[in-house]
Write a structure and sequence with these properties.
Blueprint: E1 2-10, H1 13-44, H2 50-55, H3 57-63, H4 72-90, E2 107-110, E3 115-117, E4 120-123, E5 126-133, E6 141-149, E7 155-162, E8 178-183, E9 187-191, E10 196-198, H5 202-205, H6 207-220, H7 223-254, E11 257-261, H8 265-268, H9 275-281, H10 283-297, E12 300-304, E13 330-332, E14 339-341, H11 342-360, H12 364-367, H13 373-383
Parallel strand pairs: 8-11, 11-12
Antiparallel strand pairs: 1-5, 1-7, 2-6, 3-4, 4-5, 6-7, 8-9, 9-10, 13-14
């Protein structure tokens, strides 16, 4: 099993300069390769492979002699990463690759020759080693490492290791050990057993201070104000990440199966009234944490379709309330007269839908998005004044 361990490194002034050169050179090669691939396709309809671009590095180093200071494997890896981004785009998994910006900090990968000796990180071009804060023991054999720089000027290394642990068998799915989860904004999580996790709203709580520093930065554009802004954003991100890790770990360790909705966050943030709150909640990051921690501990993540009426369906009798609005936090079922809490009801339905999918062996997520004959009939009738006898619909 592969696991990554992240540590802070404390380079000397000379090492910081060389690290910055590595980050800048890798960004330069990535952007140059991206532009080269685009020009090759527009001009000649040719697709340059990563191997062809790798072979061009020798000529590039002759033209740009300063690239000889950089670990050649890191430069090759940047081209490999670009090729993977291209492949993911054409498979429909990611957006088209973008040019990297210096303002984002940056990173570079070391695919091999990474060791730890006497509290120092040993990598190519850094023979004396870089001081590293090993706040926890590393497990397994080191495969590769990625060094990154954040906007506040700190450096971190993420070390990927092969732990030698076998992938745990998935726990058996049954109702008693399954919990439904409804993600929200006002309350971050409402579970089917009634337990709630409040939304800390770290970004909203820091809005006043952020606005003050941003006004100051926009007027003076000084390094001091920019650094203060970066420090505050880093603190908010660290607080959010800490909350997400603790919450996801608690849910994974206490339940064998978790049922969640397949949310389209990218579409939801197009609502400008809710965009900031949804971004602050980081639902996508939270779901990602649940998924990889479920792999670690042998747990199950069950997903239902985004169009399944989890909020509008009465969890007691199954009646669908088509008149339910977003601001209706409680509603009374017209069928069984049960007073329902919107979020708890949704969490119970998410669990119920997910278990039905597993037990019946069907995929509601895919079926809910397929066209129906009634829908096609409605479309045809709205586009044709009259369905003539003998037509394909009669």
């Amino acid at each position: 099993m592969l696991k990554a361990f992240k540590y802070r490194i404390n380079p000397t002034a000379a090492q910081s300069v060389l690290l910055n050169k590595h980050i800048g050179a890798v960004r330069f090669v990535y952007n140059l390769a991206l532009e080269c691939k685009q020009m090759a396709w527009v001009g000649n309809k040719a697709n340059l492979t990563c191997f062809e671009l790798h072979r061009q590095l020798k000529d590039l180093k002759t033209e740009c002699e300063w690239l000889n200071e950089i670990n050649s494997q890191s430069l090759q890896q940047s081209i490999t990463n670009l090729d993977r981004a291209y492949t993911a785009f054409f498979k429909g998994q990611k957006n088209f690759p973008k040019f990297k910006k210096k303002a984002n900090g940056g990173s570079f990968n070391i695919p091999q020759n990474v060791t730890l000796e006497n509290g120092k990180l040993i990598i190519p071009k850094f023979k004396n080693g870089i001081d590293i804060s090993l706040h926890r023991n590393i497990k397994g054999n080191i495969r590769q490492a990625t060094i990154s720089k954040v906007p506040t000027g700190k450096y971190f290394v993420s070390i990927l290791c092969e732990t030698g642990e076998s992938v745990k068998a998935k726990a058996k799915i049954n109702e008693s050990t399954t919990i439904g989860i409804d993600l929200g904004i006002k309350t971050y999580i409402v579970a089917s057993d009634g337990k709630e996790f409040d939304n800390p709203k770290f970004l909203r709580k820091a809005q006043c201070k952020l606005k003050y520093i941003q006004r100051k930065y926009s007027k003076h554009k000084g390094k001091r104000a920019k650094r203060k802004l970066s420090i505050l954003h880093e603190r908010i991100a660290n607080q959010r990440k800490d909350f997400l890790h603790k919450t996801s770990s608690e849910l994974i360790k206490n339940h064998d199966s978790l049922a969640i909705e397949d949310l389209s966050v990218s579409n939801m943030i197009k609502n400008h009234k809710l965009a900031q709150s949804i971004s602050d909640a980081s639902w996508s990051t939270f779901v990602t944490m649940l998924e990889y921690k479920a792999e670690w501990y042998g747990k199950n993540i069950l997903k239902i379709g985004r169009f399944d009426p989890s909020s509008k369906t009465c969890s007691n009798c199954g009646l669908i309330n088509k008149e339910l609005q977003l601001n209706d936090r409680e509603w009374t079922c017209k069928g069984c007269k049960t007073v329902l809490n919107r979020d708890v009801n949704a969490a119970i339905n998410i669990k119920s839908f997910a278990l039905k999918n597993i037990l019946s062996g069907t995929d509601r997520k895919n079926h809910s998005e397929l066209p129906t004959m009634v829908g096609v009939l409605t479309y045809e009738s709205s586009h044709a004044p009259l369905v003539q006898a003998g037509s394909s619909l009669v």
